Amino acid sequence: MRSPAKFYATLAAVLSGTATSPDKIFPKWRLKTEEELRELRLRTVDYFRSLFGRPWRDGMKIVIGAENFDSLVLSLGQSRTAASNHGEETHVSPDSANMIDTFLEFLPFDENLNVSDSSDRLRPQPLQLEDIEIHINYRTPRIDHLISCWHQFGGETSLKRFVMQVGAERVDQQNPERNFNQMNSLALALQFVRKGIKTTIVDMKGVFEMDSKSFTQGSTTKGIKNNTMETVVGGLQGVVACDILRMGSEDNDGPGIFCDDQSKLHLPNYEVPVESSNVRNDKNQKMLTDKQLADINHVYEEYDCGVWQHLKKYQEQGLLRVLYPFEHLFETCKPGKSNADISFYNTMLKAAEIASRPSDNETIMDEDVVSKNFDETI
Predict the structure, then answer these.
(1) What number of other Cβ atoms are within 10 A of residue 353's Cβ?
(2) pLDDT of 215-241, one tens digit each?
(3) How far apart are CA 266 and CA 245, in angstroms?
């Protein structure tokens, strides 16, 4: 079974029937009839609805964090969704609506969950759709997000080979395109707002810019109240705590916990350093020139402009907000709806074509000096 932190989105895929191998999540489901599987799905949904209902009735927040939610847009990176120029539908995954509906079934919307002992509950009302908020990080420059995917999924291969694997004929039945769906952050937001679910996009570059002016990621400082020690949490962690979870705004968050006006969380009597552990170094040379990197960044910017032009109407409706937008965010996009609607699959193919260009007349970055056995190393 997958770790709990990455389980729920996969579970939604299994229960909605969009997962191809449900027995990897539930081994006992192997060899079950379709009728038996339907019954098992219903029982599993009932279990999770009851499980989530208990903390919700007790006034607690329910937080589910998983990279696997990117599976909502997985099919946009496949050749079957390669058609472009279909407006907003170009960026809508055919699987996402069903997966979101199934996931919502896990949550305690049912009025009956709150009937008994309601006088003893901190939150007697059931969950409403407007109580749900989706948080999605958006990383720029886009080439930095691509390099992050390479660090995570590329193994010992070069960035050049990693990008070029999209659309290539393969005999091992693998699907390398799934390594890139984490980059499709704006399309992921689109899947949720189309279902009427409030969504927040956090511009990571904007957060870093704000934080670098006044604060390090996490530090232990001497508090101003009662001369106690406190840890102040800034950066992306502070934004999540203060702007998403709104910690420090309720009595049950703990005494002395508060967020300041710069989205920094103050934790009294907490002296454990707060650090970012999600940092990976290059395992191999990139084998791409500065121009190739810039051109690949541009094609992903073009794709995002196509998605952003459709997201703006949901922003106007109040379903979407962008926190800490960098000064130059989306500045390459054309006004109105004049940006091309390019499919994500075709975007990946364009990036692969750029990566495959000969670099004889271009200079590769110093740290990416090409070895003598160039053909063997990529």
Answers:
(1) 16
(2) 544 454 555 555 667 788 888 888 998
(3) 14
CB 287 within 8 A of CB 101: no
The whole-angstrom separation of Cα 238 and Cα 368 is: 35
SS3 191: helix
Asked if residue 176 has a cis previous peptide bond (ω within 30° of 0), the answer is no
pLDDT tens per residue, range 169-181: 654 556 778 889 9
Do residues 334 and 308 lie in contact, with contact meaning Cβ atoms separated by under 8 Å? no
Give the tokens for residue 269: 């009597």
Q: In sequence order, what are the beta bridge partners of 153? A: none
Q: Which residues are within 8 A (CB) of 342 and not within 5 positions of it... i.e. 6 or more apart? A: 84, 90, 302, 303, 306
**Cα first-last separation, the chain:** 34
Kindly state the helix (H) or strand (E) to which residue 193 belongs, with its residue range.
helix 185-193
Contact 22, 80 (CB under 8 A): no
